[in-house]
Amino acid sequence: PIIATGGPTDDSIAATIAAGANAITWTPPSSADIFRGIMDRYRRGLPYEEE
Q: Name one GO molecular function term (predicted).
């Protein structure tokens, strides 16, 4: 089996799979990155929406 990192985008993950990877490792966004998005929306007066 081939285990590979997929990269930061959906397209790069698809390309890695197309290149023959059997498994993809993925690092989720940090809690700081998630909170930054939440606070940006809060500061603009927009409601919180889960993705």
A: hydrolase activity
